[in-house]
Write a sequence for this structure.
């Protein structure tokens, strides 16, 4: 059972040597990506592929969605944003009664064999020929046979087997990694640590996160009034506010620096966990903001923070926020996770968040990057450059 946005696929092959591609999301959908501004790595790659000369036809496949919930959303006029389908670009939304995946591995594997059939039939109907499948879902990479595809590449942004929100599926993710090894699936990941944990027998590529240069060029935008009204120095963290945040560490930094103001910018996923920070008059949580405001905040910050606890998850991360902090030209304080080392002299490493207190004066004295250095960083770490490397790996 599927809900599909499609168009005529009988077109001339305009790009000699171009490949057909199927891209599948993990547990977010195309609509989720549009609503948050298309700024995460998977959707950045999709946008590039829609206009790339090496991609002939592109089928974007959402994860399973609940048919009853989808019908109710349409009735209530809360449908997903429209996908701009063309003869060569289309969206597939597989449906079933329950959105959530089974937890036990045999039932999960069977569910993804069915998903494989849905995607295979959709790809055939749209005229895709022996496509390359690029998936951010480890269950697709492991349990979809995909015998109709030329190859299947897993794109890992995180170690899913360490993500707290996915704890019930941790054993299934570990089983998926084992199956990927058995199948010699190619794997590209944002950090070498994720590659090490998956331990693929097939080809692998480390493809760190990147930035969109256009967002970070030009004069510094004006930040929101609630930011400029606070006295400095002002430290900024951008991202989902959840159990990754080192609450005790940040409280220690506040105690050590009585004039410091901390801005935690993003969706508050765990209010109870963050309550000790919210109680401080020098901690500001204004919820999620649009991309323009994020750029303005980061380019006006005195210092930016990667305020994460050391966990199995964070030790493997290549934080997207770190690249954006540096694109803004701000000095950065971060625990010395492996993937953050060696990026820039403007990244000051500590053992943990509490130790930010010792290096904060150094970060403030460092100040913003010279404009020429900032521009050089933006150019060297653009998504365009990353995507060329990734498409060479996937389609090569």
């Amino acid at each position: 059972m599927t809900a599909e946005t499609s168009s005529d696929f009988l077109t001339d092959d305009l790009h000699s040597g171009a490949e057909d591609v199927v891209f599948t999301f993990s547990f977010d959908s195309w609509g989720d990506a549009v609503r948050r501004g298309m700024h995460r790595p998977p959707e950045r790659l999709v946008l590039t592929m829609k206009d790339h000369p090496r991609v002939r036809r592109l089928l974007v496949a959402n994860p399973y969605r609940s048919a009853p919930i989808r019908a109710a959303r349409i009735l209530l006029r809360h449908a997903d944003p429209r996908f701009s389908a063309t003869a060569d670009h289309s969206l597939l939304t597989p449906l079933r009664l329950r959105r959530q995946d089974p937890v036990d591995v045999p039932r999960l594997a069977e569910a993804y064999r069915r998903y494989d059939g849905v995607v295979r039939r959709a790809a055939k109907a749209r005229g895709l020929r022996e496509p390359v499948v690029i998936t951010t879902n480890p269950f697709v990479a492991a349990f979809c046979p995909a015998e109709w595809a030329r190859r299947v590449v897993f794109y890992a942004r995180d170690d899913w087997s360490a993500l707290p929100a996915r704890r019930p599926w941790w054993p299934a993710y570990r089983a998926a990694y084992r199956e990927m090894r058995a199948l010699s699936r190619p794997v590209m990941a944002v950090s070498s640590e994720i590659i090490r944990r998956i331990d693929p027998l097939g080809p692998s590529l480390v493809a760190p996160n990147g930035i969109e240069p256009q967002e970070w060029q030009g004069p510094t935008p004006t930040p929101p009034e609630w930011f400029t009204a606070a006295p400095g120095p002002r430290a900024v963290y951008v991202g989902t506010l959840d159990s990754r945040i080192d609450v005790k560490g940040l409280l220690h930094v506040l105690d050590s620096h009585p004039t410091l103001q901390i801005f935690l910018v993003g969706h508050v996923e765990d209010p109870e966990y963050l309550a000790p920070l919210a109680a401080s008059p020098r901690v500001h949580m204004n919820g999620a903001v649009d991309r323009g405001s994020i750029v303005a905040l980061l380019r006006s910050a005195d210092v930016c923070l990667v305020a994460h606890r050391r966990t199995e998850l964070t030790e493997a991360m290549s934080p997207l926020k770190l690249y954006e902090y540096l694109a803004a030209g701000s000095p950065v304080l971060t625990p010395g996770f492996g993937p953050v080392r060696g990026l820039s002299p403007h990244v000051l490493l500590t053992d943990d968040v509490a130790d930010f207190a010792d290096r904060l004066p150094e970060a403030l004295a460092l100040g913003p990057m010279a404009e020429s250095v900032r521009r050089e960083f933006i150019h060297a770490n653009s998504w365009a450059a990353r995507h060329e490397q990734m498409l060479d790996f996937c389609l090569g």
Residues 4-14 have pLDDT under 50 and may be disordered. The CA atoms of residues 308 and 314 lie 7 Å apart. The two ends are 34 Å apart (CA to CA). The longest strand covers residues 89-96.
